[in-house]
Each structure stands twice: as structure tokens, then as C-alpha cells.
Target: S100 calcium binding protein P
Amino acid sequence: MTQLETAMAILMKTFDKYAAGDSNKDTLSKAEAKTLLETELPGLLKAAKNPGEVEKLLKGLDFNGDSEVDFSEFVVLVAALTCACHNRPTKK
Model:
């Protein structure tokens, strides 16, 4: 597999690992999403310094308001964080 294919497979596997915790394997509950963030993105949480920011981030992930994070919402988060970390100016 190419590097990008490997990255995509890891994204899917990571989401599935944390979504497997409760009865709905297609979404992350708030607790599952928090565990994923704490385990897979510890540097991000440490940089936040404010526990309220983590709650705000979790709430912001739920775009459709169903109190769960589906795979599409998860991918948007990862893409947004990747863009923020890439730190290159965008062309207009």
C-alpha cells in the first residue's frame, strides 16, 4: 500500500477500535470520542490547558446534533487538525 492508503487504513482502524466500545459500532459516543482524543492525541489535549476546551471540541465534532460522532465527522476533525498542524498559508 502507498503511504496515503496506509494513512487511510489507520484512520479507519482507529475509528473502529474506539467505536467498538458500545452497542453502536458506527459512531463514537461522547465517552468513546473523549477516550480516542486522550489516547491518540494527547499532545493536543495537553496544549489545550483548559478542560472546558476539550468538552467544546467534543461538542463541535457532532455536526448533526445526534450526540454521537460518526466516521464523517471524525474525518473532518482529523483533516482540520492536520491543516492546522501543517501551518502553511493558503493560496487565495
Summary: The beta strands are 27-28, 69-70. The radius of gyration is 14 Å. The first strand starts at residue 27 and ends at 28.
